[in-house]
Write a structure and sequence with these properties.
- The protein is α+β, with helices and mostly antiparallel strands.
- Helix content is 50%, strand content 7%.
- The chain folds into 2 domains: 64 residues, lambda repressor-like DNA-binding domains (434 Repressor (Amino-terminal Domain)); 238 residues, Arc Repressor Mutant, subunit A.
- β5 and β6 form a beta hairpin.
- The longest helix is centred in the first third of the chain and has 22 residues.
- The structure holds zinc ion (ZN).
- The site of zinc ion (ZN) has 6 residues, from β3, α8 and α10.
Length: 387
């Protein structure tokens, strides 16, 4: 391996910690996996108290799959106070949240790097709500409903169903990534830089209707929660409220009150199932919405919930295989364009993103071996000359 050292570049202990956490490993686990006698040494490298010797760093790089340069750079300034908004069930592990929190910063890094060469759609989002209060104050549901409709109008949408949310978001300047992760419940997070919104979803077993709802939910956070401070975000009652608000935004955006209530002419589950195919929203979200809009009363809602439980639909609803799959294409198209027009080679891009090729491929929704030209070559059949 060729190791280039730039004098201005220093070893970044934070990066070592990030690399380890991005693979979901504890200090003890990594230390033992790379054959260190004690985990204390690794702690010291991560705290910046000492610098790993070349052979140890090499083992770490290979084991965690990171390029050498990932661990070097100009000294990082203090970490920002930006909140990463998470949508996940309480049973999502801290470990997985951390992985996604790191992955979303990679998404931003990849996008920012591509943006130096290519022009992307401008961010075309309504102005977020700003109250100028230095404490958290809830937003009433009427305001949220209006904001959802305002978003639709700004994007020239009527009040009908939206099928391909990812495509719509990408067209209006939102950067979306759907990565694989081993979780039964959906896990998603979002971050923004100015008016640029980034959303990352860990999908694996998440259904299309859940993904669609989650995308709208994250947009809700951007529009409603610009001013939420970290100390408020960590308070349970504030956190619950902002989740309710983002959910309310999502259901108002996906199921506008006037058109949805007009179509809800019957309140049995079979009819909800028909509506699910049309509106691409889960039956359970539609029942919530029906109750929110007082189209059904308390008793009717309770009856429907009972039936849902009886049929086992709470965990697995029917007909998800008939909904449109959300597939981000913005970053994928951008990378393929640069490569096919020979503006940049795959290797150049990997160096610029300064990440493992498989991580880049996963975040940009490319085939996992996209950057691995050797693998591609390996697929070729070689012929031997006949004697
Ligand atoms: Zn949320």
């Amino acid at each position: 391996m060729e190791v280039k050292t730039n004098l201005k570049q220093v070893f970044l202990p934070e990066r070592l910690k990030e690399a380890r956490e991005s693979r979901g490993l504890t200090i003890r686990e990594l230390a033992s996996e790379i054959g260190l006698n004690t985990h204390q040494a690794l702690s010291k490298y991560e705290n910046g108290k000492s610098i790993p010797p070349a052979d140890v760093l090499l083992r770490i790089m290979n084991h965690l799959r990171f390029p050498y340069n990932y661990f070097f750079g100009e000294e990082l300034t203090s970490q920002s106070d930006q909140i990463v908004f998470f949508r996940s069930k309480a049973n999502t592990t801290v470990k997985l949240k951390k992985i996604h929190e790191i992955q979303i910063t990679w998404l931003i890094k990849i996008f920012n790097s591509l943006e130096k060469t290519l022009e992307f759609p401008d961010s075309d989002l309504p102005d977020p709500l700003i109250s100028n209060k230095d404490y958290f104050s809830p937003t009433d549901f009427k305001t949220i409903e209006d904001l959802a409709l305002k978003t639709r109008r700004q994007w020239n949408l009527n009040n009908g169903p939206i099928t391909d949310i990812t495509h719509l978001f990408e067209k209006h300047g939102i950067v979306v990534s759907i990565v694989k992760s081993n979780t039964a419940s959906i896990d998603a997070c979002s971050m923004w830089e100015g008016s640029k919104l980034f959303i990352l979803i860990g999908n694996e077993r998440a259904t299309p209707s859940r993904i669609k709802f989650t995308l709208a939910h994250e947009l809700g956070h951007y529009l409603l929660h610009q001013e939420v401070k970290k100390e408020d975000f960590n308070k349970k009652e504030v956190y619950n409220r902002i989740e309710d608000e983002a959910n309310y935004f999502a259901s108002s955006f996906l199921l506008p009150a006037d058109t949805f209530s007009e179509e809800l002419i019957s309140h049995n589950l079979d009819y909800y199932l028909l509506l699910k195919k049309r509106w691409q929203v889960s039956i359970q979200a539609m029942i919530f919405r029906s109750k929110e809009l007082n189209i059904i009363n308390e008793h009717q809602a309770a009856y429907l919930w009972k039936q849902i439980a009886k049929k086992g639909w709470r965990t697995k609803e029917p007909c998800d295989d008939q909904l449109i799959i959300e597939e981000p294409s913005l970053l994928k198209d951008a990378i393929e364009l640069l490569v096919s027009h020979q503006v940049k080679s795959k290797k150049q891009l990997c160096n610029e993103f300064n990440l493992d090729p498989e991580d880049i491929a996963s975040i940009a929704n490319l085939p996992i071996d996209y950057f691995d030209d050797n693998k591609a070559l390996g697929k070729l059949i070689t012929f031997k000359r006949k004697r």
